[in-house]
Amino acid sequence: MAFSRHELRLRAFQRAADVLYSFWEEQKDNNPRSVAVHSRVFDTLINNEYIELNRKAPGRTYREHVVPCAYIRNLAFDMYWRGQQPNEVATMIGRLLRIAYISTEQARAVDKLHKHTMPNDWDSETGSILVRLEIAGISIEDAIETT
């Protein structure tokens, strides 16, 4: 069976949600609650080509997750603790997990403000996924379509 690019992207997001659910099931009864899975789990489950907002270019080689992977992982666990299902987490991952290639200087500017976090008033369902970059005065150069 051949899958379209869109179907492959959706399958990748669902795969990540299912893996996180499996980790959550194993840890859900821990007291205190824990999230014992590395935030880089997404790197092995979802191909970069499905989440890139632009491509590497001279002077733009730093791979920045516009929403930190740790934030997405923690949000997934929170969603599971609230009774949400893997398909809902897959939708969330599909919305938030994106990579922008920026310069190392720009990466340092982002890290100074929000290295592993999002702004306190940011809404994961409606807020701009680029807010960390926007706060640092960074725009995506040579943006590409991600669908």
Explain this structure to me?
The protein is mainly alpha-helical and 147 residues long. The protein has one domain (5-135). Helix content is 46%, strand content 5%. The chain has six helices and two strands. It is globular.
The separation of the N and C termini measures 20 Å
**N to C succession of SSEs:** HHEHHEHH
Oligomer: single chain
| Tally of separate helices | 6
Outline, from the CA principal axes? globular
Strand order of the largest sheet: 1-2
Q: Mean pLDDT, as a whole number?
A: 94
For the biggest sheet, the summary is: 2 strands, antiparallel
Number of strands: 2
- The percentage helix is 40-55%
Gyration radius over CA: 16 Å
Question: How much strand?
Answer: 5-15%
| Structural class label | mainly alpha
Structurally, how many domains make up the residues? Answer: 1
Q: Which spans of ≥5 residues are poorly predicted at pLDDT below 50?
A: none
